[in-house]
Every structure is written in structure tokens, then in C-alpha cells.
């Protein structure tokens, strides 16, 4: 069993960003109003390291998030990297990861990052549709994404890609296209963020003027489930689904509209496993149902607030559904008819099964 990895998160809001995208208020998202001073970084790293129960160097990365790290003035960027490298040289941290924009990647930058023990680079792609990128003031196009990802991979960095669903001027078809294009780029992992309408952004103005209609939670979860499934079937890990409802990002306060939920990822995964059962029962009309699955996915079959259990009961008329932990995944229909759940094959079939999608 692999050990848990730990991330020392350092937020550098808006440093390196040329402008606000229409959906962006990084100072609110990262909870930092003033630029972090370099002389405060050591104390912040030490503070976070002290909270990790296992301080193995091989498990810890220092991460620069929040802005476009490689767009920072070069001397300042190197200063940040040097501070992080002090902890690598002391044997307390394995490496560095950072997030940036596709248009702030070139060979010169990558040579610097390689010299200073950067291991992982995440690109905020958001969309692979040029008209959507233009409408959201991203200031780069899809060709730039393809070139920068190819360059990053050629240098041997781990590559992460971030996409957003429900952007201004995007459609469900465009979001699916973006996911398919990201799969072609073969990242090591991805993040999927539904668009939220945050206060003091251009998108808030568009929403107030009815120029933008935010997605509701149900529609967002359904779309994210299909996109999530695409990445699963392509063997690409999805390390984040949705922004968290935290102290600095609160529904009804900072977020005025959009699909925010404290358990957004669970809603997506629950929806996927609901479709697994629907797929299996599609040609059956059983009277009883027992779901025997491994403990790590049992809650997904039950559902957040037991919503899947309610759904199965209402759709199929079950008076009682039995859930059991098991070493193998299978269901019992009418007590005796055992159907083994081959998730890999079922996931592939579900993606193609039009009847299972809203």
C-alpha cells in the first residue's frame, strides 16, 4: 500500500497573472489579500511541516499555487524556488510542484524549474475551445496548450491539467470536447472545476444581466460524472472535483451561483455508481436487491444522505435494499441470482449507454 503524500501549500495570488479572467477573483479563492512576502515563506513551510504525522521526505512536496508561478519576475521566482530548495537539501521535502498558465511555459523557464527540483507542473487549461477561451479572457488558445504540454513532457516533468465546466459561452458538447482533447495530451492527472459565480468578477455582472446562466447542481453533477468517467476509462486520475465550500468561499456569500457543494466529488461518484446499478438492472425487474461491494465504494452505492438507496427504492419498488461489505463486488437479485460487478468493463459500457444519461 502506497503511503499518503503531503503537500505544503503556498499561495501566491495574482503574481504573474496579466489580468482577471471573467470568472476569477484569486484573492478571494486563496484567502490572501496581500502578496505573500518571501521572508514569510520559511515560517509558513515550517508550520505546515510540523502538522504532518509522517515527515518522510519522499512523501512531501512544496506547492506554489494561486497565481501563474512562471509568470513572476524571474529573479523573484528563483528566490521562491531557492527557499523551497533549502528544505529539500535538509532532507525534509522531496520536490516542488506549481501551477501556471500554458502561455508562460518555454524552454528557458523549464530549465530553471528543472534546476530547482520542480517535479510537477499543473496548467490551468480550462477549455480547449478557442471561442470559449476568448470569451473568458484567457489570453491563450488551444494550440498554446498543446505546445506547452508537449514541452513539459519532453523535459520529464509530471503534468497536471485543470479544466472547467459550464464556462461562459461554453456548452455541454464543448466541455466534453475539452475532456477528450485533454485525454489526448496524456496528463498524469487532472482537476475538474465547475464554474462558480464569485463576487466582484465580470461573471457576476454577466449573471446579473442574464448574459450568463449558471448551471444548477444536478446538471453540473451529471456532466461532471460523464467527464470523470472519460478520464477513468483513459486511466487518468482525477485528483480534484469541484472547489471546496471553505471559510473563504461560502455559498450565498462569496459564491452567488453555481454548483458548489461540500461533497461535490462524492455526488459525482455516487451518480456514477447509481448508473452502475441501473446498467445491471436495465433488463431485470427484481423484487429484492442485495449490494455486496468493497468497503471503499460501499458509501457510493448508498449515496450521500442515502440518496441512491432512495432512488433505487422508488425506481424499482424495493421495500428493502441490503448493503454488505465484501471482498468482491457483486449484487444478488431475488436472493439467488448473483451478478458480478466488473467495474472496468461496466464503466466503458456506461460511457456509451445514452439511455443512462440525462
UniProtKB/TrEMBL annotation:
**Which keywords annotate this record?**
4Fe-4S, Iron, Iron-sulfur, Metal-binding, S-adenosyl-L-methionine
Give one GO biological process term.
tRNA wobble base 5-methoxycarbonylmethyl-2-thiouridinylation
Q: A single GO molecular function, which one? A: 4 iron, 4 sulfur cluster binding
Q: What GO cellular component term, any one, is given?
A: cytoplasm
Spell out the Pfam families in the cross-references. Answer: Radical_SAM, Radical_SAM_C
Which SUPFAM superfamilies does this chain map to?
Radical SAM enzymes
InterPro entries (alphabetical)? ELP3, Elp3/MiaA/NifB-like_rSAM, Radical_SAM_C, rSAM, rSAM_horseshoe, rSAM_sf
Note the PANTHER family from the entry: ELONGATOR COMPLEX PROTEIN 3 (PTHR11135:SF0), HISTONE ACETYLTRANSFERASE-RELATED (PTHR11135)
Q: Can you say what this protein is called?
A: Putative oxygen-independent coproporphyrinogen III oxidase
Tell me which species this is from.
Finegoldia magna (strain ATCC 29328 / DSM 20472 / WAL 2508)
Amino acid at each position: 500500500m502506497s503511503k499518503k503524500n503531503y503537500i505544503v501549500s503556498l499561495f501566491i495570488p495574482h503574481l504573474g497573472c496579466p489580468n482577471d479572467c471573467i470568472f476569477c477573483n484569486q484573492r478571494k479563492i486563496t484567502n490572501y489579500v496581500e502578496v505573500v512576502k518571501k521572508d514569510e515563506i520559511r515560517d509558513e513551510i515550517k508550520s505546515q511541516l510540523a502538522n504532518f504525522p509522517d515527515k518522510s521526505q519522499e512523501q512531501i512536496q512544496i506547492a506554489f499555487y494561486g497565481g501563474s508561478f512562471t509568470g513572476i519576475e524571474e529573479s523573484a521566482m528563483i528566490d521562491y524556488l531557492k527557499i523551497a530548495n533549502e528544505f529539500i537539501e535538509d532532507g525534509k521535502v522531496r520536490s516542488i510542484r506549481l501551477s501556471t498558465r500554458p502561455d508562460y511555459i518555454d524552454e528557458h523557464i523549464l530549465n530553471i524549474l528543472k534546476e530547482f527540483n520542480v517535479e510537477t507542473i499543473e496548467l490551468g487549461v480550462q477549455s480547449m475551445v478557442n471561442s470559449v477561451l476568448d470569451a473568458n479572457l484567457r489570453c491563450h488558445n488551444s494550440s498554446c496548450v498543446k505546445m506547452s504540454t508537449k514541452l513539459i513532457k519532453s523535459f520529464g516533468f509530471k503534468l497536471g491539467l485543470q479544466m472547467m465546466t459550464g464556462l461562459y459561452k461554453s456548452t455541454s458538447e464543448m466541455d466534453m470536447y475539452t475532456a477528450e482533447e485533454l485525454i489526448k495530451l496524456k496528463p498524469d492527472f487532472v482537476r475538474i472545476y465547475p464554474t462558480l459565480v464569485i463576487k466582484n468578477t465580470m461573471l457576476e455582472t454577466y449573471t446579473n444581466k442574464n448574459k450568463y446562466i449558471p448551471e444548477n447542481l444536478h446538471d453540473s453533477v451529471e456532466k461532471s460524472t460523464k467527464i470523470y468517467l472519460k478520464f477513468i476509462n483513459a486511466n487518468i486520475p482525477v485528483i480534484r472535483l469541484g472547489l471546496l465550500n471553505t471559510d473563504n468561499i461560502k455559498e450565498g456569500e462569496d459564491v452567488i451561483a453555481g454548483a458548489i457543494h461540500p461533497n461535490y466529488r462524492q455526488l459525482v461518484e455516487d451518480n456514477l455508481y447509481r448508473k452502475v446499478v441501473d446498467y445491471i438492472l436495465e433488463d431485470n425487474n427484481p423484487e429484492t436487491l442485495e449490494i455486496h461491494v468493497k468497503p471503499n465504494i460501499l458509501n457510493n452505492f448508498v449515496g450521500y444522505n442515502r440518496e441512491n438507496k432512495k432512488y433505487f427504492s422508488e425506481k424499482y419498488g424495493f421495500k428493502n435494499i441490503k448493503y454488505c461489505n465484501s471482498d468482491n463486488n457483486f449484487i444478488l437479485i431475488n436472493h439467488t441470482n448473483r451478478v458480478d460487478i466488473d467495474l472496468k468493463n461496466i464503466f466503458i459500457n456506461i460511457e456509451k449507454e445514452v439511455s443512462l444519461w440525462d
